Amino acid sequence: MASFKQIKFFVESKGVRGLLEKDEFLRSYRQLLDGGRTVHSYDRKFGELNALVRTNSASPKVAVCVLHGFGANMENLSPFSDVCERVIGASAEWVCIIPNGGLDLGGGSRAWWMIDLQRLQAKIMNLQFSEITKDVPAGLDVARSRVLDLMQEASTAYSLPPDAWSVCGFSQGGMLTGDLLVHMEPPPNVAGLFSAALICEDLWTEQISKKPLEARERLKKCAIVQSHGTTDMVVPVIAGHWMRDYWQKQGLKVDFDQFNGPHAVGPGAVDKFFAKVLEADRAKTR
């Protein structure tokens, strides 16, 4: 058995950076000896956010950030990483990161920003379109910064290429995903919007208009996978239509699945999202 000093030297010689703890070095060492395709799961903090991490490589080229909904936590969306492993598997070197929202609601529940759900639902049901779609939630800017910081720190830790990222989210996490889609540079390869409403319409449009032509063209290449249940009583399906129509108006292609069901992720939607992630990665090497 090699000494820890030898293990540390070996791991770092392979270009793996950002590891701090002894068990992280040991995991990476075993992974490298196994050829870089053994899947490992662990918790890690990036910036201010604790996260679940699942990866099959010490130096991944594909990165996915998964954002939970209001009142949930990272554990609720941990099955997304199972789908990532099943769909992408050994076809690419990937890391799937599922962070906890920055707000603690108590009892294990988390959020990205505070929401008055009853007020939101009433506005949607009364078709108060402009009040909803133009609303910029208090705390959105903080949530955005926290996730962007997470991505930056993860990019450094795993030596990710700049165009490695795809993002998806459910409900409030889907709304945050839409906001990140506008503010990330380069934009994500794929965005998954599951049971999410359109918000910040004017803010997003202004942000897009400020981008140079080349950046706007890059944004249009982002593939959007969207799903919404017809019996959703939390975020009614019409709010999903508003989200779909907005991105189509901006010139993006939206794969929209309207399924017969409640406030949930549509059947097959997560598989489709990760299939698009793999497709985007393969397209880079053609």
From TrEMBL:
GO terms for molecular function: hydrolase activity. InterPro entries: AB_hydrolase_fold, LYPA1-2/EST-like, PLipase/COase/thioEstase. The keyword Hydrolase applies. Belongs to the AB hydrolase superfamily. AB hydrolase 2 family. Gene3D superfamilies: alpha/beta hydrolase. Residues 55-263 form the Phospholipase/carboxylesterase/thioesterase domain. It holds the Pfam family Abhydrolase_2. Keywords: Hydrolase. This is Phospholipase/carboxylesterase/thioesterase domain-containing protein. It comes from the Eukaryota.
